[in-house]
Structures are given as C-alpha cells and as structure tokens.
UniProtKB/TrEMBL annotation:
Gene3D superfamilies: Vaccinia Virus protein VP39, Winged helix-like DNA-binding domain superfamily/Winged helix DNA-binding domain. The active site is at 224 (proton acceptor). PANTHER family: O-METHYLTRANSFERASE CICE (PTHR43712:SF2), PUTATIVE (AFU_ORTHOLOGUE AFUA_4G14580)-RELATED (PTHR43712). InterPro entries: COMT-like (IPR016461), COMT_C (IPR001077), SAM-dependent_MTases_sf (IPR029063), WH-like_DNA-bd_sf (IPR036388), WH_DNA-bd_sf (IPR036390). Keywords: Methyltransferase, S-adenosyl-L-methionine, Transferase. One of its GO terms (molecular function) is O-methyltransferase activity. The keyword S-adenosyl-L-methionine applies. This is O-methyltransferase family 2. Residues 141-293 form the O-methyltransferase C-terminal domain.
Length: 311
C-alpha cells in the first residue's frame, strides 16, 4: 500500500493531450504564436492558450515575444534518439490505457474488456521508442537465449517488428525471420538495412508459423496477450517448427514473483479477452506438454526469461 500513488497525474495527462492533439508536432516543425497554433490545429484558442501556458510552466515549451517553441529538454526527450533523455512517444501507450482502466468497474462486473475499435497496429514513433528502450537489455538477453546453440542459428522472432532483438541476434551470427502483424511490418520494413540477414513476414501466429526448422523461437512480451488455449497452441506449433535440438525462449512477467506482474494482469483484464500474466508453473506445464524440457526461469538485465529445449 502506498497512498502517494493516489496523486492525480496532471502533468502526464496534459502532455499526453498535447501529443494527441498535435501541439508538439506542430511546434517541432515551426515556431508559432498561441493564436497561430490554435488556427493550425483547428482548435479552441482559449483551450490552446491555457494548455500551452501550463506546458511553458512545466518546461516543455519556451516563449519569446509571444512565439512558442519546444524547449531543448523536450526536444531531446521526444525527437532526439541520440540523447540519453530520449523516450520518443512511448509513454503514449500508457496514456491510451487510461480510458480502458477507467472502465475497470464495468469489467469487474461483466468480465469483458473495455470495448474499443480494433487497432491496425501501434504508431511508428511508439515502436521506435520501444526499440530504443529495449537496447539496454537486448545484448544480455540475446546472449543468454543463444547459449549452447549453433553460432549460425536460424531464429524465428514472433512479434519482433521493432527489430531490436533481431539485430542483436544477427550480431551473434544468427539469421532471423520476424513474424508480426501486417501494419507493423509495413512500418518497419523500410528500416531494414541492405544486406541484413533478417526476413520480415506478415502474419498472425494464431493462424500458423513459418516453415522451419528454426534453432530458436523467441517470444518477447507475447504470451501475456493471450490465455492458456492460445499459448498452448503456440507452444505446440513452436515445437513442430523447431529443429531436433531447438529451443523456445519466452520473455514476459511471471506471476507470483513480483507485484508488477499482478498489476499488469489487471491491464490485460481491461484490454484483452483472455490475456494475463502466468505463473512459472503454468508455463512449465504448457511447455512440457508441448514437448519441451524447461529450465528454471532466469532474470537477465531486468527481464524474466523462461527457456525450454525440445526433447
């Protein structure tokens, strides 16, 4: 329990609304007066003035002779991937979760997630920001996953559209096939460099996996989106797509090991039909039934990893 967590997140909501309405994007392109900004956004002048004044006081904007610009600190945080302060707009994923979370009372009664339109995929700035953040853990995680496998391993990275882990696998001599949603592949395909041994395939693992055999199937933050039925089917398909001595690696929060996993399960409750966080015992049972010999889970660079070798 921590009553300090009850504080209303005003700054976060103001900044999120500014991103959502295009305030930062407009001022990143050019300096504008509040009146010009309101006109450009087709927004209410009074509302724009009130919000930009708050952003000035918070340090996200600066003003000279009534002309607004993005502050240097905000520019580094939003638009400069080389900056140690860079976040891109990854936080907008959290901002978008507010509405479903406010529907939690209804979900508790109905058992159904918050109703929302089906999205085609996350925005590109979110994917790139997530990729940037993952760079801290990717080297150690990929090294752990590949331990004992052939140097020139063939890897299937399910949901690996952001490319971070795929590129780390490549640095270690592997070739990688990425299976991700069509919208994600369309966004990230242009980011592939000439000659990179990475193949990007559009698809849904619920409908099938690419032909193998693969030496490693990597599941990064995938399993919490689905329930037991889907995960069991995925593990069974993975076993068939792996080589005789292949391995599956699962990166996810393990329920029962920390408070964050329990809280994240609530996020899955309000956002998915049957997603959640699962205990190590559940993963072990599902993987064993699919034909894997499961090792005890490990924590590498802040990530929990479950691996199973095909029997």
């Amino acid at each position: 329990m921590n009553i300090n967590n009850f504080e209303f997140p005003r700054e976060f909501l103001i900044v999120g609304a500014a991103v959502k309405t295009g305030i930062f994007q407009a001022l990143h392109k050019e300096a504008l007066t509040p009146e010009q900004l309101a006109q450009k956004l087709k927004a209410d002048p009074r509302a724009v003035w009130v919000v930009t004044e708050s952003l000035l006081e918070l340090g996200y904007l600066k003003q000279t002779d009534n002309v607004l610009k993005i502050s240097n600190q905000a520019n580094s945080m939003f638009y400069n991937p080389e900056s140690p302060d860079y976040n891109g707009f990854a936080f907008m994923h959290t901002y978008d979760l507010f509405t479903p979370w406010l529907g939690l009372p209804d979900t508790i009664i109905s058992g159904k997630p918050y109703p929302k339109e089906k999205k085609q995929g996350p925005p590109k700035n979110f994917i790139r920001a997530m990729s940037h953040i993952a760079q801290k853990s990717a080297p150690n995680v990929t090294a752990y996953c590949l331990e004992g496998l052939p140097r020139k391993s063939k890897i299937l990275d399910i949901g690996g559209g952001p490319l971070t882990y795929a590129r780390e696998f490549v640095k270690r001599g592997a070739s990688v096939t990425i299976l991700d949603l069509p919208a994600v592949i369309d966004m990230m395909q242009p980011d592939l460099l000439p000659g990179e041994p990475i193949t990007m395939l559009k698809g849904d693992f619920n409908e099938g996996l690419p032909d193998g055999p693969f030496d490693l199937i990597y599941l990064g933050n995938v399993c919490h989106i689905y329930g037991e039925k889907e995960n069991r089917r995925l593990f069974q398909r993975s076993a068939k797509a792996l080589s005789a001595e292949g391995r599956i690696a699962i990166i996810d929060m393990i329920r029962g090991t920390n408070v964050h996993a329990a809280l994240f399960a609530v996020n899955m409750l309000v956002n998915t039909e049957n997603g959640g966080t699962w205990t190590f015992e559940q993963y072990k049972e599902w993987l064993t039934d699919a034909g894997f010999k499961v090792k005890p889970y490990s924590e590498i660079s802040g990530r929990q990893i479950i691996t199973g070798d095909k029997q």
